Structures are given as structure tokens and as C-alpha cells.
Amino acid sequence: MVVTAVGGHFAVSGQIVMSFPGHPCMRCVGFVTDKMLADEVNNYGAAGSRPQVVWPNGVLASTAVGLFVNMVTPWHKGELPLYLEYDGNANTMMQSRLLQYGRAQQCAHFTSLHDVGDPFWTGFAEPLTDSSR
Asked: Cα separation of 49 and 43, whole Å?
């Protein structure tokens, strides 16, 4: 989710990207690029020090939970959207056109379950021991 200054107002947008083995990763569909990451760092805070982002984050998080539930339960038949774009100003969600490009690409970043990383983020912090509590 991002808030971007556009002229005299702000644009609210966001994305939901499902990324897992057998499908394009976030780099392959064009969602993550080195330039986009650098621009985000350089422009962070451009919408003010306290932008109100609870509602768009809630929309995106709830939609992501719904997609996950559809993925792991028999409630949904058919293909799930892998890349959705959210326009917070228009209150709309639609499939991204970038996915058409990503589906044609063979992903070299996500080839097996060993490429998914550590779901528990070990190594980022020292584990708690009885003596450190």
C-alpha cells in the first residue's frame, strides 16, 4: 500500500501478489524492481508524517486473507488471481495487466520449496534463552 502525492491531492493504491513455487515471483511479474525499491525509500514520508492508512491496509489484508482461505479450503473452484491492484481513491480492485507479462516468463527465482526462505525468520534476532528474559 502506498500514498503518493499527485498535484494537490494524494493517490492511494496497493497490490496483492501471491507468490509461490510454480508461479512467477514478485520480480518476474514486475512488482519488485531495484528502481522501485530505491524510489520508495527516497519518497517515504512524502504524504506527511502521519498518513491515514488503516482503511486501505484493512482492505488489502482482508482480501489477502480471503485469497488464502480460498487457496487452502474447498470453497473455491478454479484459478485464483495472482496479482490484484487496488485503487483506494476509486475503491476498486482488479487483476493487474502486469501478470500477463509475468505468466509468459519462466521464473528462475522460485524453483522449489527450498527457495521459499525461512518462514520463521531465524537468524534475524538472537533467540530468547532463560538467561536473557
From this structure: 12
Closest CA to 4 of 59, 55, 48: 48
Per residue in 46-99, pLDDT (tens digit) is 666 777 788 999 999 999 999 988 888 888 788 888 889 999 999 999 998 876
Distance in angstroms (rounded) separating the CA atoms of residues 26 and 81: 14
Give all strands (DSSP E) within the chain, no chain letters: 2-6, 9-17, 83-87, 92-95
Strands laid side by side in the 92-95 sheet: 2-6, 9-17, 83-87, 92-95
Eight-class DSSP state of 53: -
- 112 Cβ contact partners less than 8 Å away, ≥ 6 residues apart: 21
Tell me which H or E stretch contains 17.
strand 9-17
Q: How far apart are the first and last CA of the chain?
A: 35
C-alpha cell at 30: 514486475
Q: With beta carbons less than 8 A apart as the criterion, state whether 11 and 51 touch.
A: no
List phi, psi (to 5°) of 58.
Answer: -65, -40
Q: What does the DSSP 8-state code read for residue 38? A: H
Q: Which amino acid is at 7?
A: G
